[in-house]
Write a structure and sequence with these properties.
Blueprint lengths: L3 H12 L13 E2 L12 H14 L20 H13 L4 E5 L2 H12 L5 E5 L4 H9 L3 E5 L4 H14 L6 E6 L11 H10 L3 E5 L14 H5 L7 E5 L9 E5 L1 H10 L1 H4 L6 H16 L2 H19 L12 E5 L3 H13 L2 E2 L1 E3 L10 E5 L6 H16 L3 H5 L2
Parallel strand pairs: 1-10, 3-4, 3-5, 5-6, 6-7
Antiparallel strand pairs: 2-8, 7-8, 9-12, 11-12
The chain binds pyridoxal-5'-phosphate.
The site of pyridoxal-5'-phosphate has 13 residues, from helix 4.
Length: about 400
């Protein structure tokens, strides 16, 4: 079979040093996964899951596919009660579970925003937001990262220049996936109120971490009533899989009717619904791991100062990124740190803007203080060996 059209593009990627490859597990210390609370490896969670499977009468997990989309045979009382339970946990009126955070964002944005509408989104939004914007028929505009005045200029312009503009949606992440910084939610929510825009907050990296029990940033700040929709994913701190869109009962009904990524796909298997319930039971039962991760974030920031490492972006979340501009340089530095036994990954452009390539360090409740010190000592060694010019451009 002639597949030259594929190999040409792959060769171009290889030449640019950008070829992506799957790699299997390694024995390095995990400073890379999004399993911030260690739930994906939790024995306590395993027991809670067994209890949920018992309720579902699903001790045999094999062959437990859902058999159809939620609108056909894939629905259950258990799934609907779970949605209500999660909505209550996050202090929302209602929620609808999607098969992943990716489909939650694409399913939400592509369906709620219509042709005459406008989506304003932070330029550092996740790829699933970009793809949701592309799938919708609305106009769109990326505002500068965390720049509320840029957003306000645009809102002002839209509301004065085009009074017939129906709905304006503003999309932000409460914690940004690559920089680990927070959206200025209070300011943005207030702008949305002033300009009658609907605020959508992706809480992927805040779920399980912020709020007293991990309810997310919106609850932590008390903005539940000012937000049109929230997306919480289960694949990161919750160590599971899937996502929920939270909002009004009306929004839930709307998504069931119009969101193609919800309608035209097989529902998650019942065992995954049980696993999601078990992770929420674990969150409800103790906030110990949340307290530990918060302590480790403070410790990490303190140690960066102590080791005098420059180049880390300011962040008070488990995501701590060290800028090392240049794809080759960041790949090489990451591989030297990996050789010291730490699982850190380079993030290359175009995933991040050119010149903002970085090593993205993720902290976890299971990382020890000694591991953090040893990692930073390795980072210090490798960064000190870099030519000044590389660091200066960060
Ligand atoms: C901000 C953000 N939103 C959505 C997603 C997608 O979530 P999922 O992995 O559940 O598809 C991610 C995953 O990387 C993310 O970082």
């Amino acid at each position: 079979m002639n597949e030259e059209f594929l190999s040409k593009r792959l060769s171009a990627r290889t030449e640019q040093g950008l070829l992506r490859k799957l790699s299997s597990e390694n024995n390095r210390i995990d400073f890379s996964s999004n399993d911030y609370l260690g739930f994906a490896r939790s024995l306590e969670l395993k027991e809670l899951l067994a209890a949920e499977l018992e309720i579902l009468n699903l001790k045999q997990v094999t062959g437990s596919g859902s058999g159809g989309s939620r609108l056909l045979t894939g629905n259950s009382k258990y799934a609907e009660e779970l949605e209500k339970f999660i909505a209550d946990f996050h202090r929302a009126e209602a929620g609808l579970i999607f098969n992943s955070g990716y489909t939650a964002n694409t399913g939400l944005l592509s369906s709620v925003a219509q042709k005459a509408d406008m989506i304003l989104y932070d330029e550092l939004s996740h790829a699933s937001v970009y793809d949701g914007v592309r799938l919708s028929k609305a106009d769109s505009f990326p505002f500068r990262h965390n720049d509320a005045s840029h957003l306000e200029d645009r809102l002002k312009f839209l509301r004065s220049a085009n009074p017939s503009q129906q709905e304006i949606f503003v999309v932000v992440e409460s914690v940004y996936s690559m920089d680990g910084d927070f959206a200025p939610l209070i300011e943005i929510a207030s702008l949305c109120e002033d300009y009658k825009a609907k605020l959508i907050v992706d809480e992927a990296h805040a779920t399980g971490i912020f709020g007293e029990r991990g309810e997310g940033k919106v609850v932590e700040i008390g903005l539940e009533k000012q937000v049109f929709a929230r997306v919480h994913t289960f694949g990161k701190a919750l160590g599971c899989h899937g996502a929920i869109v939270l909002g009004s009962e009306e929004l839930r009904n709307y998504l069931i009717n119009f969101s193609r990524p919800f309608i035209y796909t097989t529902a998650l298997p019942p065992a995954v619904f049980a696993a999601i319930k078990a992770t929420y039971n674990l969150l409800n039962s103790s906030n110990n791991n949340i307290l530990i991760i918060r302590k480790l974030i403070s410790l990490f920031k303190f140690k960066i100062e102590e080791f005098k490492i420059s180049g880390f972006l300011k962040s008070a979340s488990p995501i701590q990124s060290l800028l090392i501009p240049g794809n080759d340089k960041v790949k090489e530095t990451a591989s030297l740190i990996q050789k010291d036994g730490f699982d850190v990954r380079p993030i290359l452009s175009p995933t991040v803007p050119k010149g903002k390539e970085r090593i993205r360090v993720c902290l976890h409740a299971f990382n020890t203080e000694e591991e953090i010190s040893a990692l930073l000592s390795s980072v210090k060694k490798q960064v000190s060996a870099l030519p000044e010019i590389v660091l200066a451009s960060s």
